[in-house]
Specification:
23% helix; 43% strand; alpha+beta
């Protein structure tokens, strides 16, 4: 895996983010992307665990600034399928669950989804569709996205950079301070009435 530089993230969700969107769109044409991912929510963890581009992707918050609400996230693993038992140990640690007895060393994508995830009452799979519009504003990555959690639709705006002061400066510059800082896992758990 390439060298990971942890990024500080500010993000919000809501149906009416028009003020923030208008301010962001003044900075030119975005880079547009579309993706489909499967997030796996755990009752015992708030790590970001998802399957994207046929990889099991794990991100974890390593620091949270209590005063500003900013969260610093880092990538812990990106594991391909079939997924090995060593990688599954990392996955279950991210879920906050004990690794179950596994009767073989590797599991295919289908086996992983149907046997290990689908049959575990502590876990919930969410199909997430994203239409993402990315901007670079003062070196910060800024994104507007339309997202769908299963059948629940909403919008999100994010500002990311390795420098937390730059993130806060950009959030203020774009008039986003009135919105609540909410990460993906928190937003999905709220949408489905799960604990956070």
């Amino acid at each position: 895996m390439e060298k990971i530089i942890p990024r500080w993230e500010w993000r919000t969700f809501g149906d009416n983010l028009s003020k923030g969107e208008e301010n962001i769109k003044k900075y030119g044409e975005p880079r547009n992307r579309r993706s489909n991912e499967i997030y796996i929510l755990s009752k015992n963890s708030n790590d970001n665990t998802k399957i994207r581009d046929e990889l099991m992707d794990i991100k974890s918050p390593i620091r949270i600034n209590i005063e500003t609400g900013l969260e610093q996230w880092t990538v812990l693993a990106k594991s391909a399928f079939p997924i090995h038992i060593n990688d599954l140990a990392l996955v279950y640690k991210a879920f906050g669950l004990k690794l179950p007895y596994l009767d073989k060393d590797e599991y295919s994508y289908k086996e992983y989804i149907e046997k290990l995830i689908g049959q575990n009452p502590e876990l919930k799979m969410i199909n997430v569709e994203k239409i993402r519009h990315g901007y670079l504003i003062d070196d910060a990555i800024v994104e507007i996205a339309e997202v769908k959690f299963n059948d629940f639709s909403t919008k999100t705006i994010a500002v990311e950079h390795s420098n937390p002061e730059l993130v806060l400066k950009t959030v203020k510059k774009l008039g986003l301070t009135e919105y609540e800082n909410v990460n993906y896992i928190k937003a999905m758990k709220r949408a489905f009435g799960l604990n956070y």
